[in-house]
Every structure is written in structure tokens, then in C-alpha cells.
Amino acid sequence: MALIKLDSGDYINTEAVDVIKGGDSPYIGLRSNNSFDITAADRDRIVEAINKKSTTSVTVVAANAIAQELALDAQNARRRGNIL
Hints:
The structure is a single chain. This protein is an alpha+beta fold. It has a single domain (3-80), classed as CATH 2.40.50. Helices cover 49% and strands 21% of the residues. It is built from one helix and five strands. It has one helix at 40-80; strands at residues 3-5, 11-13, 17-21, 27-30, 35-37. The chain starts with a strand and ends with a helix.
């Protein structure tokens, strides 16, 4: 979870963000169906935080999936008598 401080002084949990509208009047929509205006700087900070988290999460999930696949391959090889 990442909390981002907005220019208004409020904080936003990036995991609650559903949509971010850009343009001249940016606003944010939350999964709770609430929305409110944000500044362009707020939008940039939120997007940056989400992108950092997404990249990290995908990397960790991929690494875990690869490790599980390798462990399963090794287990199957041992069952067949092909010790790795």
C-alpha cells in the first residue's frame, strides 16, 4: 500500500484508485465510487507511485511463478529417477 499526500493535505491510498482523469480538470475516481478533483501534480505523483508498485508486484509474482515451476520440474524429475 502506498499513501500519497495530495496538495490539499489529504492522503490517498493508491490501491483504492480506480480511474484518474487527466486534462485541464484532472480528477480521481476511487473503488468506493467516490471521486474528487486533484491537481496535475497530484495526478503525476499518484501515477508514479502506482507504476512503481505495479512493476515491483509483477516482478515478484513472476519470480514466484518461475520458482514454483522449477520446484515442480525438479520434483517430477526425482519421481522419474532423473535426479537433478
